[in-house]
Structures
1.
Amino acid sequence: MSILISPNTEVLIQGITGKEGAKAAKAMLDYGTNVVGGVTPNKGGQEVEGKPVFNSIKEALAQLPGANTSAIYVPPFAAKAAILEAIDNNIPLINVIVERIPIKDTAYCLAAAKERGIQIIGPSSLGVMCPGIGRIGVIGGPLELTKQIFQPGSIGIISRSGGMTNEVSWQVRKAGLGQSTAVHVGGDLLMGTTYADLLRLFQKDDQTKAVIIFGEHGGSYEFEIVDIIKNKEFTKPLAIYIGGKFASALPEGMNIGHAGAIVERGRGAAEKEEALQAAGVLIAGHYEQLAELIKPLA
Amino acid sequence: MNLYEWEGKKLFTKHGIATPRGVVVRRGADFAKAYNDLGIKEVVAKAQVLSGKRGKNQGIKFCSSVEEVTRACEELFNTNFRGQYVAALLIEEKLDIAEEHYLSITYDTNKKQPVLIYSRQGGMEIEEVPEAQIEKIGLDIRNANLGVMASPDPSSPQALWQCFLAEDTRLVEINPLVKTRDGRWVAADAKVALDDDAFYRHEEWKQLEPRTMLGRLPTEREVAVRKIDEGENYYRGTAGKYIEMDGDIAILFSGGGASIANMDALIKAGLKPANYTEYSGNPPREKVYQLAKIVLSKPNLKGLWIAGGVANFTNIAETFHGIVDALDEIKPTYPIVVRRAGPYEEEGMRLMRECAERNHLDMKLYGKETSMSETAKILAKAVPVKV
């Protein structure tokens, strides 16, 4: 099996009548994902890719009660309202592709989602790919390219970067392996679904034998990985690359004030790799090593 | 965007946090007149720079006469604070300090909510204060009311929380939060970082003067690139990221994650970047053209690396067309290495190949079979070694 997507997944696209929303509808349908409809205020009654458009999620759910996933394609200034609408209607899984959402809006939505036990992937997430089952979002790209890169297999993939989700998946494929699920968690400071959240899901997934992470500096999400390895919530092989070492070569001044240093005290960039290594995580010096490191363990 | 102290203090004042009386002076201003107009004898002159540790680097001078102020101002404008540009000075009343506390609000990535940080041991050594003497209180962004807090200063925490929310900040910090001998609470310093993504609901941010996070004024190219992503379609693909650096290898990267990995690979291959540049999210040809033209306008370049991963939905033909437009104009003579894959890659590569042929460019093209790091090494071999 895979994580996050199953044959029962029914996707609504919020913002389906926009250029990117329509493109995403096509990408998902091409790959066999069950897109059941879309939502755009004041455009109810239209069709996109042969799927019905509704004015609101409420209207959509009245006709399509099985919809259990929303993919959000709206401009950043409309994102908060769109995400909250999905939360209010208890859509259990929400993928937010929108980039450049103000962090205050993101924090608001994440707090609301947490209260209802709703999973948000993103913001700034291109989506989730389960080879052979379906995809949420445009991850993988056009069908032909997607088929070259993805095939069902045993490697779980998590990436902070959309492009690198594909690139790392390609390195895995080139190494003769396949993917169980590839997730682009998004590159924002606040992540709806973190590495640790996904590792817990990969742990329960029999198909996944090992996991690869393409990480970036920023935040202290890597320490959650260390914690769940220590308490045995995650026991499968894991390889990680943390990009952005060059940033330390940039002139001083990227950070302001002391608050960051206080929040991350003892949990900064330098301590990250050390703690991960001590927990038995394989550290890749450059991203191409990820597939090499994990291959013997897959 | 980080604010200068005086800008941060203006926001604090707006939300009811007391700040010292003061005046901002620029380079070449009449310092004596500014001091006399302020009308306070005991003052402190403070260099306005964008990152901290100013106090530890002699960026603050106490004065009690016109002569002292004039000398201090001249000295401060001529001092280099770890490479940071001194944009202005703030001359303000010297506080009669009884206690120095610390108060800030920022985002905690693990809780995914803001956190308020408070300590009675404020001041320059705050990062050395033991954990037990620092209070961290998790906040809920949906609740504008802070509630009861064990801070001796009854009003600053709530006012700071209001400021944090209303001004769309990522960080607000008062260090030190001073208790004066006559019992007033005053924000003696201000560190504020705005959330750039919220710019559309803050017309007033347009008035802020340009700056970089690198402690220097933005270069002409940096200012020009930033304009590419302005306007109502600002979120339709990004092509407005450009940091000018000291090296001689021009960079046109696509995708944030790939760009970070590639910067690491470039430096590992022994090359020095002339810039950090990244476009992503399927920007239109015109945006990429403008970006490429500015990247290639830097003098004394020795090579160009155009690199990105296997794109999901960025149109390689469209984005490469923008680069080709710029190459057609500039016709570089140095080696160019391209590595890219994704939608419409064949057409994109064909556009590049034809451009190279008609302009006799020294260009090598690679697809996804060759890894990005390998192409960094290929470029390193092609670039002439310095004698």
2.
Amino acid sequence: MATTAQRRPRDLDRLAARLRTVLGEGAVITDRNRLRTYECDGLAHYKVTPAIVVLPHTTAEVAAVVRACVDERVPYVARGSGTGLSGGALPSAEGVLVVTSQMRDILETDAPGERAVVQPGVINLHVSKAAAPEGYYYAPDPSSQQICSIGGNLAENSGGAHCLKYGFTTNHVTGVELVAPDGEIVRLGGKAPDPPGYDLLGAFVGSEGTLGIATEVTVRLLRAPEAVRTLLAAFPSTDEAGGAVSAIIAAGVLPAAVEMMDALAIEAAEAAVHCDYPQGAGAVLIVELDGPAPEVEAQFGEVQRHCRDNKAFEIRIAADDIERALFWKGRKSAFAAVGRISPDYIVQDGVIPRTALPAVLRRIAALSDGEQGQGTEGPSGVRVANVFHAGDGNLHPLVLFDESVPGEAEKAEAISGAILDLCIEYGGSITGEHGVGADKAKYMPRMFTDDDLDTMQMLRCAFDPLGLANPGKIFPTPRLCGEVPGRHKGVHPLAASGVAEVF
Amino acid sequence: MSSPPTDPALQASEISDVLAELAKACDDQVRRAEDGDEVGGLPARLVAAPGSTREAADVLRVAADHRLRVVARGHGTKLHWGATPSGVELIVDTTRLSGVVEHAAGDLVAVVGAGTALATLQEVVGGAGQELAFDDPLGSTVGGAIATSPSGPRRLLRGTLRDLLIGVTFVRSDGVVAKAGGKVVKNVAGYDFGKLLTGSYGTLGLITEAIFRLHPRPVRSHHVTRTISDAADIGPALRAVLASQTVPSAVDVDWPAEGPRQVSVLLEGTEDGVEQRADAVARLLDTDVGDGAAPPWWGHYPFGPDDVAIKLTCPLTEVGTTMRRAHARAAEHGLSLASRASAAGVVHAATPGDGPPEAVASLVHELRAGIAAYDGSVLVLAAPQPLREGLDLWGPVPGLALMRRLKHELDPVHRLSPGRFVGGI
């Protein structure tokens, strides 16, 4: 890399000049102090200052940026609101960061056609707000929905509390206009379903910015449910709460959301937002049902019964939207709330089969040799607060530590990694909704074989043979993309000998 | 993009060697092709039936060594779909890749071999009161359904197979086994190859195992059906139901070549819930709730194996218009047409395969011209031989250059179902 390091600055100056010509002076940032605003996304412990930040306003401008990067062989990373939790929008030090915050128009809401067409920088919640007057909404609701962008949601295939019933971003995007890594503008799908050919749209959603940059997105709108009922149930421990979840699912009820918090997470939420959850709870469940009123009524009683049968000692039912919001406030603020009880923390994101919940929680407790349900405070001093989308087995353990105490960060990192190993051991996944990004690329080989990863990278090679689109994300080792059929056999000799590195 | 290498036809002298190698690869489950071992009218030379992913990989490695062109076959119910391949030496019969490997009832997940009949899967998971929320119009295997992605009425609420497939194992053209996804519904680790394989007509790899998310089987189902005498009422009827808060699982329309048109709404849920929702839908459609039974046409395609099978897609608001246009254009050409639509924006249509080829080609052309105005597509899923040659089966395919590059990466010599898919892929 020594030669490129010498070459880069001049190339980057030339690139910046070209970008200014295309985008205008104000849309290209190279000032060191201003660049630092963009040095990380929601995963703040990875920081890289990009060489250039651009703020395009149109698809044509995005395409011009990408073409310029291709001409100069400079890597680029797309960024929406920068709320991602896996470092997916972590910039390249010698690259361009393409920020979509100037592309924030809702181009169309077509309620009868159940679609909205939006620019990538549009905030998730704004889509629902735009559709609300006609009685429709956009279903994927990540906790950051007040600030995260649709483009970022698309890149990460974001979920949210209600994806148990309604699915993820991939189930709610029917079309995209994108700038492919060669700078071509491509449309995949639209308002109509089932576009002909390979389901490239299905592969593009969740590809974490490695297959191109979305410049316009067509999403599904759903008819708002007639009824929504929400309860909050307090249990002695996560075992009983987990039992209630299994019983609800086994009874054939598909709630819109089933969320669980353990004692330490509750403590943090109380400290932060005073959500007034029941005293002495080892775990709380929030269960929300929505749909046609008669269906919700029929199933809501059943849910309460399963909670009581599993030793819920208090069940509160939200009387109105205000009370519902209060239930959710504790849950949705849980990540940030942990800051009240610990100077530093890691938000982990892993998935296990729902039925393995009690076993895995015990194993997590054992990891730090603590007392389960009360968070864990063993000899290692590492406490873990647990928040989960219990309905689909998506764990969000919060690993608490104090950066200022030598060795604690490393211990926390080790526990956090061990939790992912547990997820894999129980047949789950290393990420349910935060993405692989920069953070978890190293864990991919624990979940997938070399052949699996090599095959996935064939898709990347098809889209981005130069490896310029968000390099270093998802895959621990880049694949050298060949031009000639039959050349993809074994490790490239230059890569094996350490001479070459892609991009 | 360079064109794929030319025909690597299997030499007669080579056949016994290849047979021996294939026999070793898949436990002697290999034979010379017989009558009926054909794809789109094209006879194959050999048929191999691997019994595991490992054996399937060995079979494809032998095929790669001998440059055999390979088409996978399950029950063969849709082998006539798509274009005729440019050649096929080997049919891989997937029916030994069968069985429900795992049914994690508490997790609503099933792991199943690609050669398993969907009906078998439904029977197994049905024992626990669960189902794969997919209507199988043709009696497919799991692999065949994924490869061609047919769809039935309940796509309106549950989506298509792409939305239910959460993990997949497949063998690449070079015999390498790869998997993507996994056994949990919520999972964003790595690229979603399941979606790429869904509807890929066997051109990217041989699917050997699939993992599906399941749904609880509804306690009660009820169809509300009414006859529509004026075709102009189709659109408003669909819109009224979709705009309501009754959450139908399906809303389908039947427009037969002769006889009355009908719209039928499927409600699924609890006893009390379904009863009240059915009442509400009946009021919306200005009809009575009836006995709740499915109409006889429900869940079947309007076409048989000898028909020209057409699939039109359109925005939800254009379903009625799309049907009316299709029938009007067909009538102008003197063609009989039957169609069935899902309110999700999909119309399947059939015209007899013995119609005048020019008329059929013109019909397809005009349907495409009409639908271009409002974002949709017109595919010819299948057509009898003489007709097929003169038809553009796929129409315009946005993103085709990227699709070619993907094919080139995964199957650079174009040996998997060559020519069967869009753009000659």
